[in-house]
Design a protein that fits this description.
Layout: E1 3-7, E2 14-26, H1 29-35, E3 40-52, E4 56-59, E5 64-68, E6 75-80, E7 86-89, E8 103-105, H2 125-136
Parallel strand pairs: 2-8
Antiparallel strand pairs: 1-2, 2-3, 3-7, 4-5, 5-6, 6-7
Length: about 160
């Protein structure tokens, strides 16, 4: 079984997951609030190993709890309490592009402006060139998108 690694933004929580199936985006209001985004992108994981730290939890409903990093707040899990698997946040994986969503859930709660996002304008090449030095000079404190033993969270 192939496994993929991931973790939170600050690196306090890391995981390896295998048996991935049903990658989806969920438009329900609870996912919108939990991710502070138009939808949550999740994938079922049959096996999860927490390799650094562990998530804290918030019980978002009678049957579900959600895991997140207690240090930086990154959403990590959707855990249906009666299941033997958990859903992991796709964008918490080191390579989220490797897990493209295949289905949408709770589409009746989709925020109307999500339709046509691909038609929104993007920065022009000139604008990108103007901001490139600013972004290059901005030192990131985010954990790198790979497992490492020598990285330490910023205090």
């Amino acid at each position: 079984m192939t496994s993929l690694s991931g973790g939170c933004q600050c690196g306090a929580v890391r995981f390896r997951a295998g048996g991935l199936k049903r990658p989806s985006i969920c438009h329900c209001r609870m996912c919108q609030k939990a991710f502070a985004a138009p939808f949550g992108a999740l994938v079922v994981a049959e096996k999860v190993e927490w390799t650094r730290g562990a998530p804290k939890h918030f019980r978002s409903s009678e049957k579900v709890r959600r895991g997140f990093c207690g240090e930086c707040g990154t959403p990590l899990t959707y855990e249906y309490l009666e299941a033997e698997y958990i859903d992991l946040a796709i964008c918490a994986f080191d390579d989220p592009a490797a897990i493209p969503p295949e289905t949408q859930l709770a589409e009746e709660q989709r925020i109307p402006w999500c339709e046509g996002l691909e038609t929104l304008s993007v920065r022009t090449p000139e604008q990108k060139a103007k901001y490139a030095p600013i972004m290059a000079a901005n030192r990131s404190f985010q954990h790198p998108d790979h497992d490492t033993t020598d990285w330490k969270p910023r205090s």
